[in-house]
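[job 0412] stage=fold_complex status=start
inputs:
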Amino acid sequence: MILQRLIMTDFRQFEKRNQIDFSNVDNKHVSIVIASNGVGKTTILTALVWCLYGGKKLPYGDLTEQFLNNNTFDSLDEGEQTTVEVVLIFEDRKSKYIITRSIVITKENSKQVNSSVSLDVVIDNVTQHYAQEKIDTILGPSMKEYFFFDGEGIGKLADSSRPDLVQKGIKNVMKIDTRTTAFELIKEAKKTFDKESAKIQTNSGITDIPEERIDKIDDQLVIKKSALEKAMEDRDTYEKKLSAIDKELILIKETKPKVEERKRFEDELILIEKSLITANYKQKDLVTKNAYLALSYEAFSNVSSIIAEKQKRGELPLIGIGKHFIEELMKEHRCICGEELVEGESHYKHLEEIMKRATAKSELEGNLSSLGSFVEAHKYDNKDFITKLKESRQSIKELQNKKSRLEQDVARITADIDKWLDHDKEERLDLKRTETLTSKDDQIKLLAQLEIEIEILNSDLKKAKKDLELSQSISEEVSLIRNRISFCEEAMLMLEEKNKEEIESIRIELSQRLSKRFDAMLHSEKKVYLDESFRLVVVGKDGNISGKSRGEAKLISLIFISTLIELAKEKEISMESDFLSTGAGVYPIIVDSPYGEFDAVYKKTISIALKELSPQVIILLNQEQWNEDIENVFSDSLAHAYRLVAHRPKLNYLKGDRNRVFFNRRTFDLEVQDDREFTTIEKLEINNESV
Amino acid sequence: MYQKNEVQEFIKIVFEIIDNNKNESNPVKVNLIKKEVERKVKR
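[job 0412] stage=fold_complex status=done
writing structure:
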C-alpha cells in the first residue's frame, strides 16, 4: 500500500478543496508536512484515519462535534446542507484505490448537525460493494496503531508490559493472520463435517452394531424355533393322550348300559334256570312215567342180549337185575332212558320186584315175557313218548344253550364292567383328561406365543438386515466424512506449526536485525533484542536488562516497525516460493511529531530510523523540529514537502519571530494574515541538487 | 495420513478462497473450503 494523494474538502481547518500528494517519486519515499502547532498536522492524520476507518472518536482527534470547516459552515444558511469529504488515493499490489468518505452536514440552529456518512471504494475504476471490507483487507483497523503514530504513541511498542502489541504487530504485518484466518475457517469447515457425521448417525437411528444384532436374533430364532418344535411335539403327544383317554371314556360310557343289560341277562338267566328246572322236572316226570315201559319196549331185545352176554361171562348174577344193572345200561347208552328213569318210581319198583323175583333164567325169561305183556297191556305208545322226550330234551338243550350263551354274555359284560366300571376309573380319567387338556392348551398357548415371538424376531431380523445395509452405506459415508475431518485436521496442524515456526523465526530474525540497526544508529554499548516473550528488551554492557529512556523507547519502536516492514516486504517478494506464505504487506508509516523534546543527536538518529521505517514514510512535524541536519538526513529520499499555512486575522509569534520554516535554503511563512481563519496546504519546492 | 503436498496444495487453495472472497461472509468462505475438502477427499 503506497499512499498517493489525500484530498480534503471543507474538512475542519481546510477550507474548500485541499490536496496533498504522497506518491513516491524517483525511488524517493519520504513526504514531509511542516506546520505550526494547532494548524492542521494532526487533522491530516485524522483525515487519513477517518477516510480509511470512519467513526467519530478517533485516536488523534474527536470528530463528534466538528467535521465542517467553520468558514464554510458560516456561509451556510440555516437548514442548508453541505458535504465534507476526504478522498484517499493509494496503490496496493498494482491496483489503484480511490477511497471517498463523506458526511452530510446540515446547519440547524447555528449548529452542525451530522447526518449520513457514505463511503465509496473504487478499485481500478470499479466501484466496490463491500467498501469497508475492501479497506480492512488491506489495512485492517487493528493495524492503525502500527502505521499512524502520534508523537507520543510511537514508544508504546517498546513498553515491556505490552508484548501483546509487538506480537500482534508481527502477526498483522507479516499477514500471519491470514494463516490464522485460514486455520479458523478450516476449523469451521471441520465442524460442519463433524455435524454432518453426527447427523447421519442420529438420523439413521442405528445406535448399535447391526451385525451383532442379527447374530443375536439368529440365536434367539434358533432357540425359539426349537422350542416351537418341542411345543408342537408336546401338543401332538397330549392330543394322542387325550384321544386315548377319550376312547377309554367312550368305552366307559358305552359300558354303563351294560350293567342294565347284564341285569336283564341275569334275570333272563334266572328265568331260564327256572325253565330248565321245570323242563327237567317235566322230562323226569315224562320219563318216570314212561321209562319202564320204554325200557321194556325199546330195550327188551337189547336187554335180553346183554343179559345173555353177561351171564355168559358170568358177570350177571343169576338172581334178579338190580338198579346197578339198569344204571350200567344207561351209562352205555344202550337204552334211551335217562338216569331219571331209575329214581325210585313205582314202575321201576315194579320192575325191580319182577327182577327180584326172577331167581332163575327161566324165571327171568318169564319175567321178561311178562314184561312184554305188561308193555302191551299198558298200550304204551313208544313213538309219542320218544317225540315228547325228544322235544323235552330239545327244549332243555335249547334252554341250556341259551343259558350258556347268557352266562357267556354275562361273563363278558361282567369282564367289561369289571374292566371299565372300576368305581374311580372314570374320575381318574376325567382328572387325567383335564390335566392333559390343560397341558395341551398350555402348549397351544406356548405355540401361539412362540409364533408371535418368532414373527417379531423375523421382523426384527428383517429390520436388522435393512439396518445393516443402511449402516454399511452410512459407514462408508461416515468414513468419508471422517477422512475429510482428518484432512482438515492435518491442514490445521500444518498451519499451526507453520505459524508457530514462522512467528518464532520472525522473532529471531527481527531480534537480530533490531540489534544491528540499533547498534548502527546509536553506536551504544547497549544492545536491543526481542525476547522469547516478545518484549523489546534493552541490555546494558553488564548483560542486565536496563530501563529505556523515552527517546530509546521511541527509537526502538521505530526500529522495530521498520525492521518488521522490511521483513514483510522481503516476505512479499519471496511469497511465490513458499507454499504457505500468505504475503505480507507493504505499508506507509505516517508519524505525527516524532521528535518530541529530544536533543539534536537523537533527532538525527530518529530521522535516520524514520527514513528507513517503511517503503513510504510521511512525517508531520513543526518548524521547530525541522532543521538543516534533519533536512540533510532526508535529502536523498524526499519525494514531497509541504507547509501548512495558517490564515488568521492576527499572527502568532514564536519566540518573538513569525512562524516560518527554513527549507531548501529558503524561508517560508507558516502563517499569513487574513480576515478569516483557515489552513492551506502549500507545496515546498524540492531542489535535489541544492538540498 | 495424507501426502504433505496434497495438504499444502489445499492450504494454498484456502488462501486463494480467502483472497478471492474478501467481501463474502465467513459461512460463505467456510462453505467454499468445505467443497474444496470434498473435492480433495473423495469416496
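[job 0412] summary: Residues 4-40 of chain B form one domain.
[job 0412] exit 0
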